[in-house]
Amino acid sequence: MANIGYFNHSQGLQVEKVNIVTSISSRSGNDPLEKLEAFIAPEALDDSAERCDAPKCHPETRVAVQDDLYSWIEHGDAQSPSPDSPRKMKWVTGPAGTGKTAVMGSLTERCKQNGFPVACFFFSSTGSIGRRTKTAFVTTIAHQLAQHRQDLKDAVAAAIEADTIVFKRNLRVQMETLVLAPLREVAAGSNAELRGVIIVDGLDECGVEQNHDSTTAGSRNKPTRTKEQDQLEILQVLHQAASDPTFPFRILVASRPERVFREFFDSKNSPASFAQKVDLYEDYNVEADITLFLDSQFSRIRRRYNLPSSWPPPGTVQTLVMIASRQFIYAATVIRFLDAVHQEPPEDSLKAILEHAGYDSI
């Protein structure tokens, strides 16, 4: 059996990984799609076991941004600078804690429920090796796309048979070989409309791969590149896809507003950017969503502990919304603390939270 993302922590990560998988020869090796499957990162899928506790948007929250993004996915950008050159990418950004992953997860789920083809990749700096590096990015996207149509699956399989070492090539070549060329082939031979979306979350958490050249003294575990270079490489292959006039999908990228992303998406080289920026911190009424979330959760906690309708005291929710400073993660952390199994009743726990924030009474 192949060891996927194997780490030996007792050796101080001496063994960074066997590989995302062992070589394809360890599998049956006859079916090209089996070879492809050997090089994907299944943990990066939205419904993977590793993401069983991943955040999703609370019902009736983040409705506006979800509706806006889903409408763009389904119908395109009515405000595109050129009808002949529609923008196929959007950048969803915001500081840590503003709910990017929850929005991307809920949007992926919505696409699936509505039967809209979606391929996703959820990066995580604390997840398995496949989710922390660029290695399996294109192959994982290609594998998902191939599941949506038999003719596309056949085209991807033929591409692998024609280039049996494609999995060892760089991301640009993999994108062309495993995604763009098969899509062109299917589009040319089919009257059925090709539609879909690629959702990439947490790209800022993609780290640099390690160099394990044991032949050079002092070189072991020294990265030959920076994580920003690897993140930029992924952005470039996504732009490569979006720039292809025959590419039929939309692309959503979510990340924190770090320099590599600002410089890539906020390029002033042309008057019309190729991608639209969606700022979860600035562009939407986050306070209203946090208020709705807290009201709903406090109601649930009252029922659970048989608390009076007067709890929490008037003004508490507004105070917590102010303290949260547009960060959903703060409100979610407060609720998790109140839900935690401990000896303090929720009233005392909430009082401690407010006192810690400098509010002795409400």
From TrEMBL:
Residue ranges of domain Nephrocystin 3-like N-terminal in the record: 85-256
InterPro entries linked: NPHP3-like_N, P-loop_NTPase
Recorded superkingdom: Eukaryota
PANTHER family for the chain: AMELOGENIN (PTHR10039), NACHT DOMAIN-CONTAINING PROTEIN (PTHR10039:SF14)
Keywords: Repeat
Keyword Repeat attached: yes
Pfam families: NPHP3_N
Protein name: Nephrocystin 3-like N-terminal domain-containing protein
Organism: Candolleomyces eurysporus
